[in-house]
Design a protein that fits this description.
Number of domains: 4
CATH class of the largest domain: Mainly Beta
Shape: globular
Strand content: 35-45%
Number of strands: 23
CATH topology of the largest domain: Thrombin, subunit H
Oligomer: single chain
CATH superfamily of the largest domain: Trypsin-like serine proteases
Length: about 450
């Protein structure tokens, strides 16, 4: 494959005339000796994977080698790869660029064709510099009483060589802690803190890297309050004239394929602590044991849409000769036991009203609501295939519109009265992007995108 094969859907100026086009400038590999080679002519396919649940973007490169590159360069597993590409929209001046450097960690597959023994094919995987550094070291130190986000940023800068210009905080952490970090990798320490961090609404944080190069610590509240980036339509036909700007936009916003997991199981959500829970804590200092019952309140929980997924009118028996109850009344559906030590580190901490002195203090205060957010965020998900867009990243909010499952003639009657009523209100609405795989092959760029939501667009009561 020649390098131009990657750019076959763009013109000489880099403008893409097909929504799946991209302009690959180069793929540069540097070996252990500092020697540099541009390998875009050898790369037949590559992908970039990013997720709210991954602290690094993951690179996967497929190479078709007929010039003995692996030996002559040579490749020994201590290489870096830098990818540079651009995306210029059809008939606009909007340009999106990407430049990412990866440290190679594995050559997971290798093979030669039975028909052609002179061509070898192998795949390369790479991760960010911060993830590479983290895997090579352990840290152990103490931190004074401060916000968990401050500790995380300190670890990134001090231990992972991340400049703060490449770090973004979305939402303010209310969680504070005095922390003794045991021996663990920097990223394990960050995940340890992230899991107990929360904002003013009690919402959890996500720690991840995007293909824009930013490493981010972002609250769920910040994500669901983002404006809608783009609206995508599940349609089978096109209505615009071919080769027009309108036709380009229509194609670019079309859902190419979709598989869904509706997840309506209230049993699964209840047992994971979505609606109510009993939380017991044993204080070693005072020798006291207390109970805290948590009940989900949609009015105090930040979500994408205004409507909850739970009906208060659906009730069932709690046993013989007992009144019927709703899901929120079964408080023992999820139970947590938490040990605490209120006598530790009392000096220097003026108030722990919103936070805690120890890791377990934060767990006691926050775990119930964190469980609610995490469970509801897995309420409904779709796996979409869309035309490529470098700004389709985790944390973005998009809107999906699915037509009603009706006979076309009946659907026409809806259009005559209200064109907004042709969409299925159960499936349509806002979703946040949880994970994206950007795939580039043969001049075509697509994204495989997992989207989720925590609420409904239409009222159920």
């Amino acid at each position: 494959m020649s390098g131009s094969a990657h750019n076959q859907n763009t013109d000489a100026k880099g403008n893409r005339f097909n929504p799946s086009g991209y302009n690959l400038e180069n793929i540069e590999m540097i070996n252990h000796r500092g020697e540099s080679k541009f390998i875009e002519n050898l790369v037949v396919k590559f992908s970039l994977s990013e997720s709210l649940y991954s602290p690094t973007v993951i690179l996967s490169l497929s190479i078709q080698d007929s010039v003995n590159f692996m030996e002559s360069f040579p490749c020994i597993g201590q290489e870096t790869v830098t990818i540079r590409l651009k995306q210029k929209e059809h008939n606009t001046d909007i340009e999106k660029a990407l430049e990412l450097k990866f440290f190679i960690v594995e050559y997971p597959t290798y093979g030669r064709s039975a028909q052609n023994n002179h061509v070898q094919v192998y795949r390369i995987e790479g991760i960010s510099e911060q993830a590479f550094i983290s895997s090579h070291k352990k840290i152990s130190r103490s931190y004074e009483y401060k916000q968990t986000s401050d500790i995380i940023s300190n670890i990134l800068e001090r231990d992972c060589n991340l400049t703060l210009s490449k770090y973004a905080l979305g939402g303010e952490t209310k969680s504070k802690i005095r922390w003794n970090c045991p021996y663990m990798t920097p990223f394990d320490a960050i995940e340890h803190l992230r899991s107990i961090s929360y904002d003013e609404s009690g919402a959890p944080f996500y720690f991840y890297q995007s293909i824009n190069g930013l490493t981010q610590l972002v609250s769920h509240t910040s994500i669901v309050n983002e404006p809608v980036y783009q609206t995508y339509f599940d349609s089978r036909q096109f209505s615009s004239d071919p080769n027009t700007t309108t036709d380009y936009i229509e194609r670019a916003t079309r859902i190419l394929s979709c598989s869904s997991n509706i997840k309506l199981s209230k049993i699964e959500q209840s047992t994971s602590g979505a609606y109510t829970s009993e939380n017991y804590s044993l204080d070693y200092t005072t020798k006291t044991y207390k109970q805290n019952i948590y009940t989900y309140d949609p009015e105090k929980t930040e979500s994408l849409e205004e409507s909850t997924t739970l009906s208060d009118k659906f009730v069932f028996s709690n046993g013989i000769d007992t009144p019927v109850q709703g899901a929120k009344d079964f408080t023992s559906a999820h139970i947590e036991y938490i040990p605490i030590n209120s006598g530790a580190y009392l000096d220097g901490v003026k108030s722990t009203e919103d936070s805690g002195q120890l890791y377990t203090d934060l767990t006691e205060k926050a775990i119930a609501k964190l469980k609610t957010y995490r469970s509801l965020s897995n309420n409904t998900s779709h796996d979409l295939r869309l035309h490529g867009d470098l700004q389709l990243n985790p944390g973005r909010v998009i809107q999906l519109l699915f037509p009603k499952a009706l006979d076309p003639d009946i659907l026409k009657e809806y259009l005559e009265t209200d064109d907004t009523d042709v969409y299925d209100k159960t499936l349509s609405g806002k979703y946040f992007i949880a994970a994206v795989e950007h795939t580039f092959e043969g001049g075509e760029y697509y994204v495989n995108c997992r989207v989720k939501r925590d609420s409904r667009a239409n009222e159920i009561e």
